Amino acid sequence: MASSQLFPLSSTFYRLSLLSRLSLPFALTRLNPPRQKSGQHMTRVRSPLLPSSICLSASNLSTSPSPCRAVSNYDDLLVLGIETSCDDTAAAVVRGNGEILSQVVSSQADLLALYGGVAPKMAEEAHAKVIDRVVQDALDKAKIGEADLSAVAVTIGPGLSLCLRVGVQKARNIAGRFVKPVVGVHHMEAHALVARLVKQELEFPFMTLLISGGHNLLVLARDLGQYVQLGTTIDDAIGEAYDKTAKWLGLDMRKSGGPAIEELAREGDPHSVKFSTPMKQHKDCNFSYAGLKTQVRLAIESRKINAEIPISLASVEDRCSRANIAASFQRVAVLHLEERCERAIDWAMDIEPSIKYLVVSGGVASNQYVRARLNDVVRRKDLQLVCPPPSLCTDNGVMVAWTGIEHFRMGRFDPPPPADEPDDIVYDLRPRWPLGEEYDKGRSEARSLRKARIHPSLTSMIQASLKEQA
User: Fold this and answer.
1) Locate the Gcp-like domain: which residues (predicted)?
2) What pLDDT is recorded for position 53?
3) CA 397 to CA 131: how far, in whole Å?
4) pLDDT greater than 90 at residue 402
5) Rounded to an integer, what distance in angstroms lies between the CA atom of residue 413 and that of residue 105?
6) Nearest in space to 294 (alpha carbons), one of 235, 231, 364
């Protein structure tokens, strides 16, 4: 930017000079648009995403309502982050200097326990019930009002469409009523970038392992918005494997599968059950946990463990058997992570020899056993391990707000939406949205067709936008 001072954006200047150049990346909407009901008019809007709609210096502008709060420098930015991609409703307010002013999370633990996992329609309804309260609590704890915000950041993908819509609708409602710009955030990028809030000296490039209930990603972060995907899951993610194993063992799912398995595994022998490490024959960095899940299920059935009997009521012998399975599963599941990480670090060092850090984030990164094993890996590779605190590893609004701040500084945000958007708007959400472009060595022909891309990657969209503006 020409100046560190932010000024009102002329709507006339934006329409004539920028809109035509911004439209290309956003022309990539759903391949199968929703069917229109008879007699119903449906309005499609771009999702709040990436390209540059920037606040310029006063000499370029005429006066109009300001889409961004005037601040003397970026440290004074105030950004509200909203996260509803899966089963937690979260909001936070973060200052441009990284100060966390508030953080609020409403968990759906009871629903997880009831359904043994995430039920999309039930999750959507739970988000809708609490989203207003969660956002208001975040603002109240930060001691600010909506008018004080510089921008609103919101997760737009990947995730469950029904859940994403709740957060996006709330974010656009606030942004429209209070004339604030909107920053659309990639969920997995947010998990990676929150480490830069925690460790201010963390500079690009760095390696990142993102592990959660729905994702396994090994990524080389070359710069903000510039990512190389070294490996991903070809079927189930590690968090899904933890959850299913916990359910089959009759554990308390209100803790979610990861913490429940980790706790029980401390009582067991990790070498008592001989599970095979997945994909030993594949010399790439991709992950597979479907086969390990099958091994666990067969082991449980062979020992006649009844999941209907909760672990708290199990006999001593039964509890010991469950603990051995939990410990053996965890050892092999994490060994798979270790092997893939070691190879990915080697690949990343070939591309960017200056790498010093491995960032591990996502819900499963809260697991202390996982952290300890991966710390051994980075020591062997002469790197440093960076893990956000557990409260910032699971889904949260802080990571969304911080990622919004990082992109806002680069001028990547959308102008305020209309204050009176119709109820029948169809948001261009991105439930399956790759973070980076695949590394040639990391391509997997075993990838399921159901994982086929619906949207271009975040990296390719930013690159296309930059070329359009050149």
Assistant:
1) 99-402
2) 36
3) 12
4) yes
5) 25
6) 235
Buried/exposed code over 329-352 (b: 16+ C-beta within 10 A; e: otherwise):
bbbbbbebbbbbbebbbebbbeee
Whole-number Å distance between alpha carbons of 115 and 113? 6
Tell me which H or E stretch contains 299: helix 290-302
- d(C-alpha 470, C-alpha 466), whole Å: 6
Q: Using CA of residue 11, residue 16, residue 20, residue 21, what is the dihedral sign?
A: negative
> What span, in angstroms and rounded, lies between the C-alpha atoms of 221 and 208?
7
Residues 6+ apart with CB under 8 A from 216: 210, 231, 232, 233, 237, 238, 287, 289
The domains located in the chain, with CATH, are 11-200+394-435+453-469 (3.30.420.40), 206-393 (3.30.420.40)
Least confident of 64-78, 176-190, 333-347, 384-398: 64-78
Is 187 in a helix, a strand, or coil?
helix
Residue for token pair 């909001």: 91
